[in-house]
Amino acid sequence: MNSTTPLAYPVNEACARLGIGRVTLYALLKSGDLRGFKIGAKRLIPDSELQRIVAERMAAGATA
Question: What is the pLDDT of residue 54?
Fold first, then answer.
């Protein structure tokens, strides 16, 4: 990771990075499969969470 890589992304950017829609992202947050946090009114998703969920889904797909 370089110094210009954000530590966390707003919802629209997290959706773009994962290639999913807002409804799906909010469902992942609500279910606890993806963790985020709020600063003021802005919800942010840590980059580490995006990488984690991709790795978990890849591992699950590899065994299915």
Answer: 96
pLDDT band at 2 (very low <50, low <70, confident <90, very high): low
Q: Where are the alpha helices (DSSP H) in 6-45?
A: 11-18, 22-31
CB atoms under 10 Å from CB of 56, counted, come to 11
Pairwise CA distance, residues 49 & 27, whole Å: 15
Query: CA distances (Å), 43 to each of 8, 52, 56, 63, in order?
Result: 9, 18, 22, 33
Give 44's DSSP letter. E
Beta bridge partners of 8: 46
